[in-house]
Amino acid sequence: MPHSYHLEKHYLERAGWLRAAVLGANDGIISVTSLVVGMAASGASSHILLVTCVAGLISGAASMAAGEYISVKSQEDIEKADLAREARELQQHPEHELQELTQIYIRRGLDRHLAEQVAQQLTEHNALHAHARDEIGILEQTAARPLSAAFASALAFSVGSLVPLLSILILPEVYLSKGIMWVGVLSLGMLGAIASYAGGVNVYKGAVRIMLWGIIAMLFSAWIGSLFQ
Q: How far is CA 83 from CA 90, 98, 120, 124, 224, in A?
């Protein structure tokens, strides 16, 4: 009778794109909404608010993409340098690297004989991969991917920025100042809940946490804007 097994999906596999997407959408909602709220508090017309919102969307998305790419690219460069160094060590000192891998497995709880067997078999299979995973800590699921991170951040920021943009287009001008803020706060709550659910943590805590930070940012922007009336 054939054995059956299943591959478990872990939340850590989503860490890379989830972090970039949540950061981008969160920044898109908070920064652009706060910018528009501050302008509205200064008495700006709906036309000026619309132009401000579009400008914030474009500049913010470009900034998020560039910043995320540079950050993750630096991580990728470090990973590549470590892998290149490890490859040289494996070529020049294979026995030393084998013993190093053996000691890692001993520290993790295997007896010496089993640790030597595991280290030997993994070295024969793919020595660099074994050292990358167990010595350096580079995992395929969490490896740096700068282009995908930059794209995810820019896209998420743009999607988040659509919240204040749609609010300006839909809400009556008399309700714009407070309406944009409330729509932004509610959108942040939804984003926090979705991100928490995707990450496997408490949905309500995630929603409340992000809403509180959004309220603080928007109120501060509104106060600054009111000084220029």
A: 10, 16, 19, 17, 50
